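2024-03-11 09:14:02 DEBUG pipeline.ingest accepted 1 chain
2024-03-11 09:14:02 DEBUG pipeline.ingest length=317
2024-03-11 09:14:03 DEBUG pipeline.predict start
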Amino acid sequence: MASMSTTIDPSSVAPAAVKAVRRFNRFYTRRAGVLSPYLGGDLSLTEVRVLYELAHHQGLVAAELIRELGMDGGYLSRILKRFENAGWLSRTPSPTDARQSLLTLTEAGYAAFAPMQQKSRDEAAALLAALAPGDQQAVVEAMARIEQLLEPAAAPRTRAAVLRDPRPGDMGWVVQQHGEVYAREYGWNMEFEALVADIVAKYVRHFQPEWERCWMAELDGERVGSVFVVRKSATTAQLRMLLLTPAARGLGLGARLTDECLAFARAKGYRKMVLWTNSCLGAARDIYARRGFELVKSEPYEGFGQSLVGETWSLKL
């Protein structure tokens, strides 16, 4: 939370509002398990938070961690020393300031952090799982609104997306999210999830790294999107499975993922890129049209429990 300005008068806040904030703090720390051994491990909440920042921001210096986390320098120094002794952290001299060291997680550090991050994801999912999808989204939007109101300066930073290569577990996420998103938003049945699973399995089994590529999109360390380029022929690339979760929409991320696909295809010497989509997917169709894709075929069909119109789009590279 941002530091309080000297011009702010706490006495101007209604006692009932103060009581409500304190009640919410007690409620959320209990529901989120903050008062228990954090994530069931040996590290404190603060130590896990430091590890998170190191895992998601390469080449930090201690001063940046102190500023970001609002920590005491001595306490942070002890945490970093513990990580270093465990073999999780390496230090290299800063090229711009000899008094500072760049802090980087080692392979062992990432290995230690990965199960913590997954457990944190699982606990967050469990917190929301009892709610209907609409209520889940309402909770997420309410939390985002609290962040924006209490610390508006931090909002742009937390919306910065990272595109990365896939890791183990990502392909299962792609299948799951396609099934969930299209069922919730378009009423498609599990036939569509089966189709995506077949496409993903074929991609993994027959992956041609010199000709094909997948990007995973993350916001604040959480997966929110994906896209694939596959080799259709020696001269034609195919864009497949462009997906964004609701939390990632409105940030230009779909356009960014599409542009990565086009840049990759051009660099590999493909002469054409094609894709198949459906007429009901308005946002995706707009992205394709803005980049010069042309609709070359449109055909009604019955599929995924719905009456749909399939479309083939094409772009000369």
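2024-03-11 09:14:41 DEBUG pipeline.report Confidence is low (pLDDT under 50) at residues 1-6.
2024-03-11 09:14:41 DEBUG pipeline.predict end
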